[in-house]
Structures are given as C-alpha cells and as structure tokens.
C-alpha cells in the first residue's frame, strides 16, 4: 500500500533553513528569495532582511544591506538592521497618547519616548510563515491586546515579493479588534557600495519632498511642516548625502545629521503608490528607487552607528555607514492632530505598499 506524504504541498514550499535558536527554544529560519538580478535572505525573526545582493555596473554582485552573520548579533546588538518595525514606527512622545478618551501608556525605550514599537517590537518576535516560495514570503504576527501598552489585538501580515524587473515589493496589511495606532515600516540600512564599505556620504539622493517635519532636541516633531527650500533638507534635485550634512542648521544638530520625516509630494499611480526617492552610488553605478503609498519617509543616515558594531564578515559599521529610507506615517501622529491619522479601528483593513527598485547607472563616475 502506498502511503501519502504527511506534508502537504503548501508546507513543502517552506524552504527555510535553520539560522539559530531563540532563548525560548524556537528555531529561527532563513529563506532565500531570488528573481531577476536580486537575491535576498530573510529571517522569520523580525522579518529581517539579512542580506541582499545586486550587481554593479560591471556585473559584480555585492551584499548592500547592513546586518549580522548570526542570530546572536540580531538578538543583542542590532539597531533594527533589516527589520520590520511595529506596532508603531518611530517615536510616540513620552510613550503616551489619548484615544477615544482613554490615555494609554506605552513601554518607553528611548529616553522618555516609545520608539519602534517598544522593548519587544515586531523586529524582535518570530513571525509565523504563512507561505514561502523562491520569490515571495508571507509573514504574520499577532500582537496581543496590551502588548507594549498598545490597545487591541492587532494582526499584521507582511508579504515580501521579488519581481522579475528587480523590485522588492512590501505589502502590509493590518486589522484590529480595538482602535489602536499602527505604523508599520521596514528598517533596512543600505550601502550601495557594499555593506562594509566606506560611509554613504557620496551616495546621491533625490527625495520628492517639498517639506519635512522638524523635531525638538529629543527627535519629537514640533507639529510644523517646514518647507525644504533653502535648507540642507532640499533633496528635490539629486545631492550627495554628505554635501550639507555638517551644515550649521539647528535641525541637523538635533538629529546628529539627517534623522527626519520628509513629507512626500507628487502624484501616485492607480494604486496610490508614488515615487518617493532615488539613490545613486557613483563608484559602482548601483541605484535604488523607492515608491510608497505612505505619506512620509524617515531619512536616517546611521548617525548613531559609531564603529562599535561588527557585522557580517567582520565589517565594522562606522558612523554613516548605511542609510535608511523608512516609508511611514509621521512620527508621534497619535499626539499630533494635524498629521494624517494612524488610528486603525475594528472592521477596517489597513493596507500599504512600499517598493525598492534596484538598477545600475551605466554612466561612469
Ligand atoms: C530613528 C532614529 C533611530 C534609528 C534606530 C530611526 O528610524 O529615526 O532616531 O536612532 O531608527 O536605529
């Protein structure tokens, strides 16, 4: 008598390989996705993009994201390298907000403020793998009512897809059983010269933003939308990241460089996805374009890296050795009535999409 295989086809597609064991005893798996010219490796822990390889203009492939070779690095030393962020990306002032007349107190993990979802944010949990193929991965995390102080049980589903035309598409979906703020994002640190290479100050950035949200000295938005015109925050035409980073501007002092939310302008396509940013690395020709349905993007240049973190292959990550473009709603929105709302209510389904497109510019430096 022939016996049918115990594993249904859907399970067999989960081709992850063990990457380490959590203190809980659970095994973390790593999944390889490849399509077109791009190969990426993703952990079910934090949805972390552990590596991402693309060719340069000579066809030389390099890993362009900062990270660690082992789970231990992600557990103990990671400033959110490659990770999904939730329930709320960036800061909520003094870890407190009032919603429908009730004041909620969150876990404070950044001075008095709540940052990136709290002490155990979505970057520090093992996500359930709903599906995995050689070019896509579907992850789910259920965050319980009261998790890190947030109200309501929130179900977040994130799909990573690599397309044949070299785009990494991230689809987010969230539902809740009680009203709660939600701001999901992805915190990959990029260095298009290769993850261990020199700081990213020569990378040229274009950001389609007419305004940014200035912050106080603790990086909480003042509530104002400030035009970028005439400031070092004007990236409407491409500028090297480092060209004005040391300018005498109060906001650059507050952020120790760029660590600000930019207000995206420009029309979206039929699905509401709009072109937000483009980066070009002159020496290798690698380019990265970002599009999103989100109203803002946090541009952060690894200002708090200081050479104390040793990452993949022994690379030492010095100040500014990676940049992040985190598509998001604005920081501290639950306390800022003038900002687009982040509140998700029962019966609603929050969806958003962010895409990173990889290419090469054949023009020599
Ligand atoms: C924040 C920075 C923070 C960093 C953590 C960014 O999104 O804006 O202030 O230090 O994440 O790695």
Write the SSE topology:
Blueprint: H1 9-12, E1 17-21, E2 27-35, E3 38-43, E4 49-55, E5 61-63, H2 71-76, E6 84-85, E7 91-92, E8 96-99, E9 102-105, E10 114-115, E11 128-132, E12 136-143, E13 154-162, E14 167-176, E15 180-181, E16 185-186, E17 204-207, E18 209-213, E19 226-227, E20 239-240, H3 250-255, E21 259-264, E22 274-280, E23 286-292, E24 296-300, E25 309-310, E26 316-317, E27 324-328, E28 343-344, E29 350-360
Antiparallel strand pairs: 1-2, 2-3, 3-4, 4-5, 6-16, 7-10, 8-9, 11-12, 12-13, 13-14, 14-29, 15-28, 17-20, 17-22, 18-19, 18-21, 21-24, 22-23, 23-29, 24-27, 25-26
The structure holds beta-D-glucopyranose.
What features would you describe in this structure?
β13 and β14 form a beta hairpin. Helix content is 4%, strand content 38%. It has one domain (8-360): Beta-galactosidase, Chain A, domain 5. The radius of gyration is 20 Å and the shape is globular. The chain has helices spanning 9-12, 71-76, 250-255, and strands at residues 17-21, 27-35, 38-43, 49-55, 61-63, 84-85, 91-92, 96-99, 102-105, 114-115, 128-132, 136-143, 154-162, 167-176, 180-181, 185-186, 204-207, 209-213, 226-227, 239-240, 259-264, 274-280, 286-292, 296-300, 309-310, 316-317, 324-328, 343-344, 350-360. The strands form 8 sheets. Strands 11-12-13-14-29-23-22-17-20 form a 9-stranded antiparallel beta sheet, with no helix packed on it. It has a 5-stranded antiparallel beta sheet with strand order 1-2-3-4-5, with no helix packed on it. It has 3 helices and 29 strands. With 365 residues, it is mainly β. Residues 1-12 have low confidence and may be disordered. Beta-D-glucopyranose (BGC) is lined by residues 79-80, 90, 219, 259, 298, 300, 304, 326. Residues 79-80, 90, 219, 259, 298, 300, 304, 326 line the site of beta-D-glucopyranose.
């Amino acid at each position: 008598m022939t016996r049918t295989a115990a594993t249904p086809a859907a399970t067999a597609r989960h081709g992850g390989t063990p990457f380490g064991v959590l203190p809980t005893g659970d095994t973390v798996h790593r999944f390889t996705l490849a399509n077109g010219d791009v190969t990426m490796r993703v952990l079910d822990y934090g949805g972390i993009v552990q590596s991402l390889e693309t060719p340069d203009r000579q066809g030389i492939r390099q890993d362009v994201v900062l990270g660690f070779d082992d789970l231990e690095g992600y557990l103990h030393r990671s400033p959110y390298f490659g990770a999904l962020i939730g329930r709320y990306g960036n800061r909520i002032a003094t870890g407190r907000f009032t919603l429908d007349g009730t004041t909620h107190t969150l876990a404070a993990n950044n001075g008095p403020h709540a940052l990136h979802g709290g002490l155990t944010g979505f970057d520090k949990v093992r996500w359930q793998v709903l599906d995995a193929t050689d070019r896509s991965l579907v992850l789910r995390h259920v965050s319980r009512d009261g998790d890190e102080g947030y109200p309501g049980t929130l179900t977040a589903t994130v799909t990573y897809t690599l397309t044949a035309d070299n785009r990494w598409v991230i689809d987010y979906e969230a539902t809740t059983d009680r009203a709660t703020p939600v701001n999901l994002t992805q915190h990959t640190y990029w260095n298009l010269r290769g993850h261990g290479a020199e700081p990213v100050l020569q990378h040229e950035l274009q950001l389609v933003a007419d305004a940014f949200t200035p912050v106080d000295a603790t990086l909480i938005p003042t509530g104002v939308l400030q035009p970028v015109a005439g400031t070092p925050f004007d990236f409407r035409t491409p500028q090297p990241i480092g060209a004005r980073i040391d300018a005498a501007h109060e906001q650059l002092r507050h952020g120790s460089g760029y660590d600000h939310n930019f207000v995206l302008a420009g029309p979206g396509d039929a699905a509401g996805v709009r072109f937000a940013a483009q980066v070009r690395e002159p020496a290798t020709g690698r380019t990265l374009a970002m599009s999103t349905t989100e109203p803002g993007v946090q541009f952060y240049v690894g200002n708090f890296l200081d050479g104390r973190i040793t990452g993949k292959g022994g690379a030492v990550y010095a100040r500014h050795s990676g940049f992040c473009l985190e598509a998001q709603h604005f920081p501290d929105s639950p306390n800022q009535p003038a900002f687009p709302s982040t509140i998700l209510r029962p019966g609603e389904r929050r969806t958003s999409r962010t895409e990173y497109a990889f290419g090469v510019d054949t023009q020599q430096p």
